[in-house]
Amino acid sequence: MSRCTLILLLGLLSLPTVAQSLRDPTQPPGMEAAGPATAARAGAPSWSVIVVDGRPHVAVGTRLYAQGQMLGRARVERITETEIWLREGQALRKVPLYAGVQRRSVPAAP
After folding, report:
1. What's the pLDDT tens digit per position in 16-68?
2. Are the C-beta atoms of 57 and 71 separated by less than 8 Å?
3. Rounded Cα gap, residues 65 and 79, in angstroms
4. Residue 86 class from Cβ within 10 Å (0-12 exposed, 13-18 middle, 19+ buried)?
5. Residue 28 resides in a domain
6. Number of domains present in the structure of the chain
7. Is 61:49 a contact under the CB 8 Å cutoff?
């Protein structure tokens, strides 16, 4: 081995290595750094709708919330297949369950 190759090899070995941290496979994409509380505030990635005895419930983690119950500081006003309506004081906000998905009626073909 030549002296030049040895110097180059030692120089490469002394450089710091940079590696990406591994992603948690149990979390949805984009939620790696966020904990469950952040995911719940961000909206629906960790929320789903479950119907129990004919009444829809919001499933957040392992807890179920029906219409009228408190979810943190907000009251659950309405639950649909695609969104949850929450009231905090006088403010009413809609939390979509699926980002970028909108439900609308399509007129019947003639």
Report:
1. 766 677 777 777 666 555 444 444 444 445 788 999 999 999 998 889 999 99
2. no
3. 10
4. buried
5. no
6. 1
7. no
On whether residue 73 sits in a domain, the answer given is yes
Q: Which residues in 25-82 belong to E strands, given as ranges?
A: 47-52, 55-60, 63-66, 70-71, 74-79
Domain containing 39: what range?
A: 35-98
Please tell me whether the overall predicted TM-score, pTM, comes out greater than 0.70 for this model. no
Strands 74-79 and 83-88: antiparallel
Distance CA 78, CA 30 (A): 27
Half-sphere exposure of residue 101: CA atoms within 13 angstroms, side-chain side: 9
Element at 102 (helix H, strand E): none
